């Protein structure tokens, strides 16, 4: 199983990139967002990967963060959601947007992804709504693991390899807020919904927690 690739970017196409790792070129399929985040040709790039293996097919799918990869795995666990549909959802909404939409039960947002119809969007929301909080809570841990891996990738005394530029996802703040709310006694589902809703306007983790607490406060 290939879980991560680091090498030079040969080129980017409409739905994939070719990464040269030690003279071997890997075709890695990516979402629109991931492709947009990659550097120019000839630059060093790092992608977390998921391999799809079938009798007549062998494909690699690439992700900038482990959090995005986990959402891909969760999305493709839904019947009718293949790798192509998952890439469309992540390319349209991003991992954080998909997380927020699913947690809030917003099938309309999922349906905005190309090729995803209303019935499939509703199925995604129904099947993943209860699983979303656990993935959100993993966000901070996964990002920390990613930082550690990047540090370990520095070869000996050579200059540090510069991986693809990464826009820090909101998953860190959301994971910390979700953990804080659960420590206060709120249920995972209620806490996740409040965090997802508050994340649209919060400026940082502390603000996210404050806004989520207001949403969870008993209404008169």
UniProtKB/TrEMBL annotation:
<dbReference type="InterPro" id="IPR013849">
    <property type="entry name" value="DNA_helicase_Holl-junc_RuvA_I"/>
</dbReference>
<dbReference type="GO" id="GO:0005524">
    <property type="term" value="F:ATP binding"/>
</dbReference>
<comment type="subunit">
    <text>Homotetramer. Forms an RuvA(8)-RuvB(12)-Holliday junction (HJ) complex. HJ DNA is sandwiched between 2 RuvA tetramers; dsDNA enters through RuvA and exits via RuvB. An RuvB hexamer assembles on each DNA strand where it exits the tetramer. Each RuvB hexamer is contacted by two RuvA subunits (via domain III) on 2 adjacent RuvB subunits; this complex drives branch migration. In the full resolvosome a probable DNA-RuvA(4)-RuvB(12)-RuvC(2) complex forms which resolves the HJ.</text>
</comment>
<keyword id="KW-0234">DNA repair</keyword>
<feature type="region of interest" description="Domain III">
    <location>
        <begin position="171"/>
        <end position="220"/>
    </location>
</feature>
<keyword id="KW-0238">DNA-binding</keyword>
<feature type="domain" description="DNA helicase Holliday junction RuvA type">
    <location>
        <begin position="1"/>
        <end position="62"/>
    </location>
</feature>
<dbReference type="GO" id="GO:0009378">
    <property type="term" value="F:four-way junction helicase activity"/>
</dbReference>
<keyword id="KW-0227">DNA damage</keyword>
<dbReference type="GO" id="GO:0000400">
    <property type="term" value="F:four-way junction DNA binding"/>
</dbReference>
<dbReference type="Pfam" id="PF01330">
    <property type="entry name" value="RuvA_N"/>
</dbReference>
<dbReference type="GO" id="GO:0005737">
    <property type="term" value="C:cytoplasm"/>
</dbReference>
<dbReference type="InterPro" id="IPR000085">
    <property type="entry name" value="RuvA"/>
</dbReference>
<dbReference type="Pfam" id="PF07499">
    <property type="entry name" value="RuvA_C"/>
</dbReference>
<dbReference type="Pfam" id="PF14520">
    <property type="entry name" value="HHH_5"/>
</dbReference>
<dbReference type="GO" id="GO:0009379">
    <property type="term" value="C:Holliday junction helicase complex"/>
</dbReference>
<dbReference type="GO" id="GO:0048476">
    <property type="term" value="C:Holliday junction resolvase complex"/>
</dbReference>
<comment type="similarity">
    <text>Belongs to the RuvA family.</text>
</comment>
<keyword id="KW-0963">Cytoplasm</keyword>
<dbReference type="InterPro" id="IPR011114">
    <property type="entry name" value="RuvA_C"/>
</dbReference>
<dbReference type="GO" id="GO:0006281">
    <property type="term" value="P:DNA repair"/>
</dbReference>
<feature type="domain" description="Holliday junction DNA helicase RuvA C-terminal">
    <location>
        <begin position="172"/>
        <end position="217"/>
    </location>
</feature>
<protein>
    <recommendedName>
        <fullName>Holliday junction branch migration complex subunit RuvA</fullName>
    </recommendedName>
</protein>
<comment type="function">
    <text>The RuvA-RuvB-RuvC complex processes Holliday junction (HJ) DNA during genetic recombination and DNA repair, while the RuvA-RuvB complex plays an important role in the rescue of blocked DNA replication forks via replication fork reversal (RFR). RuvA specifically binds to HJ cruciform DNA, conferring on it an open structure. The RuvB hexamer acts as an ATP-dependent pump, pulling dsDNA into and through the RuvAB complex. HJ branch migration allows RuvC to scan DNA until it finds its consensus sequence, where it cleaves and resolves the cruciform DNA.</text>
</comment>
<feature type="region of interest" description="Domain I">
    <location>
        <begin position="1"/>
        <end position="64"/>
    </location>
</feature>
<dbReference type="GO" id="GO:0006310">
    <property type="term" value="P:DNA recombination"/>
</dbReference>
<keyword id="KW-0233">DNA recombination</keyword>
């Amino acid at each position: 199983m290939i879980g991560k690739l680091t090498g030079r970017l040969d080129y980017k196409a409409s739905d994939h990139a070719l990464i040269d790792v030690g003279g071997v070129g890997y075709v890695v399929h990516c979402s629109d967002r991931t492709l947009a985040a990659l550097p120019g040709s000839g630059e060093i790039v790092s992608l977390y990967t998921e391999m799809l293996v079938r009798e007549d097919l062998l494909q690699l799918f690439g992700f900038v963060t482990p959090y995005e990869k986990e959402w891909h795995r969760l999305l493709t666990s839904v019947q009718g959601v293949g790798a192509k549909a998952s890439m469309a959802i992540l390319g349209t909404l991003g991992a954080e947007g998909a997380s927020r939409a699913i947690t809030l039960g917003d099938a309309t947002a999922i349906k905005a992804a190309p090729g995803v119809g209303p019935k499939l969007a509703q199925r995604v929301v129904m099947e993943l709504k209860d699983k979303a909080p656990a993935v959100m809570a993993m966000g901070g841990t996964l990002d920390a693991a990613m930082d550690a891996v990047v540090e370990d990738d520095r070869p000996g005394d050579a200059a540090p390899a510069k991986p693809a530029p990464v826009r820090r996802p909101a998953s860190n703040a959301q994971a910390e807020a979700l953990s804080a709310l659960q420590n206060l006694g709120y249920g995972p589902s209620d806490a996740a919904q409040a965090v997802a809703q508050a994340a649209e306007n919060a400026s940082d983790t502390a603000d996210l927690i404050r806004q989520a607490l207001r949403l969870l406060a008993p209404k008169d």
